Amino acid sequence: MSDTDKVFAGSIPKIYDEYLVPMIFSVYAEDIARRVAARSPAVLLEIAAGTGAVTRAVAAALPRGIRYVATDLNEPMLAIAVQRQADDDRITWRQADGMALPFGGAEFDVVCCQFGAMFFPDRVKAYGEVKSVLKRDGTFVFNVWDRIEDNVLTHEATIALEKLFPDDPPRFMVRTPHGYCDKTVIRTDLERAGFRDISIETRSEISRAPSAEHVALALCQGTPLRSEIEARDASKLQAATDIVAETIRTRHGAGAVEGKIQAVVIEARP
Ligand SMILES: C[S@@+](CC[C@H](N)C(=O)[O-])C[C@H]1O[C@@H](n2cnc3c(N)ncnc32)[C@H](O)[C@@H]1O
Asked: Residue of 7, 18, 119, 202 with fewest CB within 10 Å of its CB?
C-alpha cells in the first residue's frame, strides 16, 4: 500500500460523499445496517466510518437508548459525517486508527466496518484490536470489495487511465480497495486474530449514476486515486477525469449509467 492510499483529505471527502457514496456505498450500508440491527446491540462501535453512510443507516435501524461510537482515521471524513447526521445523542464521533483502538476491553456488542479493512496495513493486528474490544458474545460485521473485474465501472476507469499514463498507470484501485478479497485469506486472518465462528458471503449489487461524468469525477477526484494522479502530473487531473468519462460514455451511453458491483460480506464471532 502506498502512503497516500489511506489519506482521505483535502478535496476528496466532499466529492467522495456527494458522488461516490450514492453510487456504490449506500446500497451496502443498508446491508450492514440490517445485519447490525439483527444483533440488537446496546453498545456498538464503527471503524472507518468515513462520511457516515453506514452510521446513518445503522442509526435509523436501531432504537433509542443504544450507544454508538463512530470512528475514522481521517478527521476530514468525520467532519462531513457530523454535518450530515441529524442531532442524535446516541452517537459519539471520534478520530481513531483501526490499528490501535482507544477503547477498553470487551466494551461493544457489535463492531462494524464498511470497506475499511483493505486500508489496514496489518489485518491480523486490526482484527485482534476488534476482538479485544468486543464482548465475548459480540459480532464483528464488515465488508470488503471483491475483485476489480467484478466492479465494472471502477475496472473500466482503471483501464482508461492506462492510456494517459502508459508507463506508470495509477494502480490505487487494484492495489487497495480491490486488493483484499480472497475469502481464504480473510478467514485465515480472522482465525489468526482469534475469531472462530466466521461466515463469509459474496454480495452483488448494481451501481447507478446519472452520467459518465459523475462516475469519472467520483472515482478520479473523490478517492485517493486523485493523489496518485496528481503525484504523476497535477496538471493532468482534469484530463484523467475526462478520459475516464469518455470511456464510460462510449461503453454505457450519454445518459444514466449502471454497472455491476460486488463485495464480500463477513460476520465473525470470537
Ligand atoms: C472507502 S472509505 C469507507 C468509508 C465508509 N465506511 C463508507 O462506507 O463510506 C475507507 C475509509 O477508511 C478510513 N481509514 C483508512 N485507514 C484507516 C485506519 N487505519 N483506521 C481507521 N480508518 C481508516 C478512511 O479514512 C476512509 O474513511
From this structure: 202
